[in-house]
Amino acid sequence: MRAGGLPYDEGMNRLLSRIAVNIALAAMTTAALAQGSSSSAPSLAGTWSLVAADDLRPDGTRHPAYGANPRGLLVLTPDGRYSLQLFRSDRPRFASGDKKKGTPAEYEAAVLGMSSHVGRYAIDAATRTLTFKIELASFPNWEGTEQKRPFDLSGDELS
User: Fold this and answer.
1) Confidence (pLDDT) at 155
2) Quick one: residue 93, left, alpha or beta (phi over 0 = left, psi -120 to 50 = alpha)?
3) What value does the mean pLDDT of the chain take?
4) pLDDT of residue 55
5) What pLDDT is attached to residue 74?
6) CA distance readout (Å), 127 to 1, 26, 122, 146, 149
7) 2-154 is classed in which CATH architecture?
């Protein structure tokens, strides 16, 4: 199988490694906007609903990584745990109706049409960086790794 003209593993790794670079999330609850008590880091704890998931290209332009209307959630707990799920809204259903009887194209669309990982997170207020310490991931190569993402909190939007 191939993804984006690259061998499947290489293409998927490149796609997934760029996806969370600039994810815009709209708050489902204003409680997530409270300031942290022991540091100047904002508390991002709460449930965030995905409004965009873009690849940031070298020229600075953005490309929707999960289609025009992606769906997903980011849950950040006050004790430093997180769960992140991203999905294309236009993922095709399996013709057989059975998860174990998909075609190669259906499996490829299912895998490339979603990303999920869970673990611990840390916020660095000085650099405005959110670090995901990945424990489990839909892309197994990410397990045991860290992903650092710059963030901006503006009103009820986290990007």
Assistant:
1) 84
2) beta
3) 79
4) 86
5) 96
6) 39, 22, 12, 16, 10
7) Beta Barrel (2.40)
